[in-house]
Amino acid sequence: MVVKLKDIAQATGKSITTVSRALNDYDDVSAETKSLVMRVAKELGYTPNTWAQRLQKQHTETIGLIIPTFGPRFSDPFFSELLAGIGNRAAQLGYDMLVSTRSPGEEERAAYQAAINGRRVDGFVLVRTRRQDERISILQEADFPFAAFGRAEERLDFPFVDEDSTYGMKLVVEHLASLGHERIACLAPPSELMFAHYRLQGFKEGLTEADLQADNSLILIGDLTQRGGYEQASKLLDLPSPPTAIAACNDLMAFGAMSAAQDRGLMVGKDIAITGFDDIPMSEFSHPSLTTLHQPLYQIGGMVCEMLIQLIRGEPLDEKYILLKPELMVRQSSGLSID
Amino acid sequence: MVVKLKDIAQATGKSITTVSRALNDYDDVSAETKSLVMRVAKELGYTPNTWAQRLQKQHTETIGLIIPTFGPRFSDPFFSELLAGIGNRAAQLGYDMLVSTRSPGEEERAAYQAAINGRRVDGFVLVRTRRQDERISILQEADFPFAAFGRAEERLDFPFVDEDSTYGMKLVVEHLASLGHERIACLAPPSELMFAHYRLQGFKEGLTEADLQADNSLILIGDLTQRGGYEQASKLLDLPSPPTAIAACNDLMAFGAMSAAQDRGLMVGKDIAITGFDDIPMSEFSHPSLTTLHQPLYQIGGMVCEMLIQLIRGEPLDEKYILLKPELMVRQSSGLSID
DNA sequence: TTGAAAGCGCTAACAA
DNA sequence: TTGTTAGCGCTTTCAA
Questions:
Q1: Is residue B43 part of a domain?
Q2: With an 8 Å Cβ cutoff, are B80 and A85 in contact?
Q3: Distance B20 CA to C4 C1' (A)
Q4: Which of A153, B143, B240, B270 is the most exposed place for a label (fewest CB within 10 A)?
Q5: Shared-domain flag, residues B148 and B38
């Protein structure tokens, strides 16, 4: 049997209302009543029924996060870091986090609609924004609070945190060029992802600035997994005139590329340079360690979460658009020079 | 403005009751009324208010998962795989998943209590069971449904899925011994974790069966991260008489150990053998690739989730205790022989 | 086949 | 300072 307000009311001889107000620390309840109620509530082990509270208050103290997946899973450490950041910040601020995964398409749309209409969450954190992102239109049309990790193509106005991928990739290319590389390949993300656009743009601008020829046959799209990186890098390495450096657009693909190179007897960091993007914990401990761009994913998760909650609470946002500069972590995989 | 039953009732000229029944496909509603109601509901874009439904039905169609963390985060790919498995299975079965992280202690206890009393979730998935696991007593005392990934020390009776770690570690030691190793070290998990017990036991039994001397100075406890693995392996390698093989109790520590060895100029798989446990996606792509024990984490997540939901629904469990045999994945890091 | 009415546990406007 | 009453949106007896 679960303890409810009624039970406390009975035990104290007060009315349900008074008990409710005492528990919520209203100041029109006498101090004695308050402490009496509090004591009894504690004794009885009272916890409010969340659903009743929410039905009444019309908000849920819960934020939603639907992770977009292409395959069935999201084992990318990228997401775990981010998730941890969001979840912990949410908990600090007194919010629950409802998590699910959907692949883009009808199901994803339905999940958002259901959550919005059913008032299941107070707002959404959007991750991995896409060029034409229907999630954004759904949310905006419903006038539903959300904050995103990533920007969107159209000049849509919404709060976001993003890292400056263009800047980051330019940094990488500059680094590789300074090491003497001239044939630099890129392992790009699926083009519908917004960050694919920015990273590719940075890659190309970097080449231009380094006075290098862009060669489209050296730009291959991978699915952001190790396996994808392995496969695409294999193609690059089997080219008649293979690249001397591969800039992967995320760490997982970079690791796949390293394997592909190593399987061909190449020494990564010497015979070929390979770089990543994300700086997942593994990067520091791979062999060779991975030169990559650091994104503070855990903190980013926290920032987006905090933005969202400010939005939900109707508080003014400290900042509406946050663009972070990734930091280049030079490690072994890019080598120190090429002869 | 959100559409509710009342709106549909008005639009169709029916009563709220009838609309509700039509929508829930009761068979005492005429076919025409039903289709009329359905159509209008669709037109208006109706979605039931979750809170009202739950308050009424007294269950939530939500399962809870509180991830225990020692530090602030849970970036272990181990958890992401498991989480994906649980979440996707839950979604298939029509359940939401409420996720949060708490470090063991007062806060964790409070989180469970609040979720139970507030009827916030219908049941819990417990992960990473501990020897004296107070979560289990809380849940059992409240008679609250849960299923665990992992067993517990006391002869407590609850449904679980677990992998046979003892068996797995024996497999590893047997493998290493067959390769000629005699000084085999172990990177063990913190001893309060239940699986630490089983893995260590397997390690020791494996030594005995291989007629090898157990040397307690070769058993070091690490915190399951790469960094922890790196630090503890460093100690082992700097011993006057270092081990020729290191069996880490999870992949992340194994990667750390590999780095430590490589930093000392050792060639992993030749100068020293290193093995892991988990077979996270990275293992196949590290350099050298990691010999480890495969646990189908994604599937395990699904199994535990399904168990829990059967429990919640009061259905008989297909199986109450599931013990899986991990499979040894022999890769490069253990080497093929030692001379 | 349908509708009126009660009630899930809580909060809040209003009265006393 | 306290209690009465209504109502959040839904489901479910019970009666018509």
A1: yes
A2: no
A3: 14
A4: B240
A5: no
